[in-house]
Amino acid sequence: MTDIAQDRSANSGSSFAWFEKSREKLPAIIAVIGLIALWQGIVWGFSVPTYMAPGPFEVLGAFQENAAVLFNNFWPTFFEALLGFVFGNLIAILLAVLFVHSMTAERAFYPIAVFINTIPIIAVAPILVLIFGNGLAPKIIIAALICFFPTLVNMVRGLKAVNPATLDLMRVLSATNSEVFWKVRLQSSLPFLFAALKIASTTCVIGAIVAEWIGSNFGLGALIIEATYNFRSPLLYATVFTAALLAVCLFALVSIAEKYFIRWKAPAVH
Amino acid sequence: MAVMDIAEDAVSASAETALAVSIDNIDVRFGSGDAIVTALKGVSVDIADGAFVTMLGPSGCGKSTLLRAIADLVPTSNGQIKVHGRTPEEARKSRDFAFVFQDATLLPWRSAIDNVKLPLEVGKPGPAHADPKELLELVGLSGRENALPAELSGGMRQRVAIARALVTRPRILLMDEPFGALDEITRDKLNEELLRIWQETGTTILFVTHSIPEAAFLGQKVLVLAAHPGRVKEFMPVDLEFPRHLAMRDTMEFIQITAHLRQLLEEC
Predict the structure, then answer these.
(1) Which long-range contacts (CB under 8 A, 24 or more apart) does A220-225 make?
(2) Which of A132, A203, B44, B261 fits a 20 to 30 Å CA distance from B68?
(3) How far apart are CA B185 and CA B164, in angstroms?
(4) Distance (Å) from the C-alpha of residue A173 to the closest C-alpha of chain B?
(5) Which 8-state DSSP code applies to residue A50?
């Protein structure tokens, strides 16, 4: 056979691979440690008061002291963000499917979707709090709203991004529209969808926190407001880091799902 | 009178069954209003059942368009096409033909064998179909059944595409520059293998190419098309015996044939 293909199982010995991998991560680890050291250095060197900007050790202390408070406020924000993520993306995906099947639907609703996206989320939040009260509902809706648009745009693009020759092939095979959808469009949209889901995984946390600022007595957003007004800066920083951790966790989950669903994408080629 | 009609019908019916494709004075136009482009004008050609016909012409001569019209991918605006006596649409629905594109058009998330099985999963596949595993063997890919397209070379992907086209046991194979994007060594090898597959399966093959040696080497007949508008220049038989081997391309006979084809193309 003259044809030569790349070998998938080209990985060498496992211990060597582990060493290689940790060596790849070494610059990032050093950079993080360096930044923390710089932060501590500035706080010490300029004798910055704690209420203005606490040092890393004070923040670490706040984590220890307020572990229970942080933990109790973590869960509401987590659920708001997660449910917002699920509903916002689900609606966006279903709408994208509708758009691809019906030109009329796309023409009717796409401008409305764009309009909704142009309203600043911080301006919608009070309206929703007035309608739905102080519970979980307005937070979930705001988190969903912030996820919705990028996913809609990407999913529409993804569903349409099918190689024209592949569509010709399906026509020669007399495939029905639904066969084209399930066998071709859905799979080829996945890279686009996951690009959007990665954005949504971090923005849904922003949505939940912004919603909690407007009117809430629980969640990381409420804790941020409370800590700020009481000059409890170490707690404020600890809360911000917790929120970031939440977003990173959601991002990691999406990345793992992406690896599982898009195993076919050749890393070397694309 | 009535007797004569019946007799005539019988004659034309038996003539049609011996023809894989019969094209009668077709026009193909693209666009509308002032921007109408006539891609094909008054094209008539008959292709015998079991034949290997190559289609050659300068770019813009509509050779791919003609193939796509036979495949019901492009509508004709005049005349008619019959595929084994039926319209292209009927032929497409009953899987009389299969199409191989320049790009292998494999679904990247499916393994080689699953790509070959695709025609059996969509539309209304007939009961008669070939064994996908045997087909991959036929195209020289046994052992790579579970490889993903990204793990295969360009030549291997095109082999999978040919296996996929053959899985429904089509009577006609329509190939639109299938080896156009491959390097010369791979192309030569696939040319020889395609002839072997043609002889083993007995399928009619219509093969579009822009390579003169490829057209002469593969075809029993070469359909030469002229451009602006696309029309038949000549339907030339190639007097080379089968089985053909790559070495035949260095013979005087072959060189004369390609020289003649080149001359025809220059006149186009």
Answers:
(1) A220/A73, A220/A74, A220/A77, A220/A246, A221/A77, A222/A73, A223/A69, A223/A70, A223/A73
(2) B261
(3) 23
(4) 6
(5) T
Answer whether residue A10 shows pLDDT above 50.
no
- For residue B97, what is the nearest residue in chain A, using CA coordinates? A172
In terms of Cα–Cα distance, which of A107, A90, A108 is closest to A155?
Answer: A90
| Segment A29-83, tens digit of pLDDT | 999 999 999 999 999 899 888 888 898 988 999 999 999 999 999 999 999 999 9
Q: Domains along chain B?
A: 33-96+174-268 (3.40.50.300), 103-170 (no CATH)
Q: Indicate the Cα dihedral angle A165, A170, A171, A174, nearest 10°.
A: 170
Sheet holding B78-83, edge to edge: B37-48, B19-30, B78-83
Counting other chains too, the contacts that A223-229 makes at CB distance below 8 Å and 24 or more residues apart are: A223/A69, A223/A70, A223/A73
DSSP 8-class letter at A183: I
Contact B105 A5 (CB under 8 A): no
- Domain range A66-261, CATH architecture: Orthogonal Bundle (1.10)
* Signed CA dihedral, A177, A180, A185, A186: sign only: positive
Tokens 């695709």 appear where?
B118
Cβ contacts of B150 on chain A, cutoff 8 Å: 264-266, 269
Residues of B with CB under 8 A from a CB of A: 68, 71-73, 92-93, 95, 97-99, 101-103, 105, 107-110, 118-119, 121-124, 140, 144, 147-153, 155-156, 185-186, 189
Identify the contact set of chain A against chain B, taking CB-CB distances under 8 A: 1-6, 8, 163, 165-166, 168-176, 179, 183-184, 187, 262-266, 269
A172: Cα within 13 Å, side-chain hemisphere: 29
> B234 phi and psi, to 5 degrees?
-160, 150
DSSP strands (E only) in B36-156 = 37-48, 52-56, 78-83, 97-100
Q: What is the pLDDT of residues B177-216, one digit of tens each?
A: 999 888 888 899 899 989 998 998 889 999 999 999 999 9
Kindly identify which residue of chain B lies nearest to residue A167, measuring between CA atoms: B105
Nearest residue on chain A to B109, alpha-carbon basis: A264
Q: Contact A80/A140 with Cβ under 8 angstroms?
A: yes
Q: What is the pLDDT of residues A106-148, one digit of tens each?
A: 999 989 888 888 888 888 888 888 888 888 899 999 999 999 9
Cβ A171–B185 below 8 Å, yes or no? no
Q: Do B107 and A183 touch (CB under 8 A)?
A: yes
Domain ranges of chain A: 66-261
Report whether the peptide linkage leading into residue B229 is cis, meaning its omega lies within 30 degrees of zero: yes
Contact yes or no for A105/A98 (Cβ under 8 A): yes
